[in-house]
Write a structure and sequence with these properties.
Elements lengths: L1 H45 L8 E2 L8 E2 L10 E3 L11 E6 L8 E12 L3 E4 L2 E4 L3 E11 L2 E11 L6
Length: 162
């Protein structure tokens, strides 16, 4: 009888520890995915200079040429590559288990969409563009047969006008 109870307790403890380990691994991978998404947001917000209506002095005589200052990170469109996150064959490496010698790797697909909000402000009957761009980043992956998605978005306006 006592051997049966001991076996039941040992099995329950083993199962509980396995579930705790699975939960820890799931949260570790999700945190790595959140970090990748946040790095993309940070790169978008810090890309400089961003001034779409900037009139650049190209060193020639007047008139100056209109050269908008728009970094590649703020180019409008939908992209499957990151600003700072490297991709291989359209996949982003989210996590590599160091204990596996690099054989256990979790990958996902990154989608980055930059849009011009098209917002204007009218002052004294003159409409001016606010030059606001938005970024939406989504990282999707599968772990242990379950699909996960991490998303974030932000807005960015012009650095300066000249």
């Amino acid at each position: 009888m006592s051997l049966g109870v001991l076996t039941l307790v040992a099995g329950s403890v083993s199962w509980s520890l396995t579930q705790l380990n699975l939960s820890a691994a799931t949260n570790r991978i999700y945190t790595c995915a959140q970090t990748i998404v946040q790095n993309e947001i940070d790169a978008f917000l810090s890309a400089e200079p961003y001034s779409p209506r900037h009139i650049a002095d190209d060193g020639t005589a007047y008139p100056r040429t209109a050269t908008p200052l728009i970094p590649a990170a703020l180019t409008t469109g939908t992209f499957s590559t990151g600003i700072v996150t490297p991709t291989t064959g359209g996949l982003v490496t989210i996590y590599t288990d160091p204990a596996s010698g690099g054989t256990l790797t979790i990958t996902g697909t990154l989608s980055r969409t930059v849009t011009d909000q098209g917002l204007t402000q009218t002052t004294n009957s003159k409409a001016d563009s606010l030059d606001i761009r938005s970024l939406s980043v989504t990282l999707s992956y599968t772990f242990k047969g379950k699909a996960y998605t991490v998303s974030a978005s932000t807005l960015r306006t012009s650095d300066f006008e000249r």
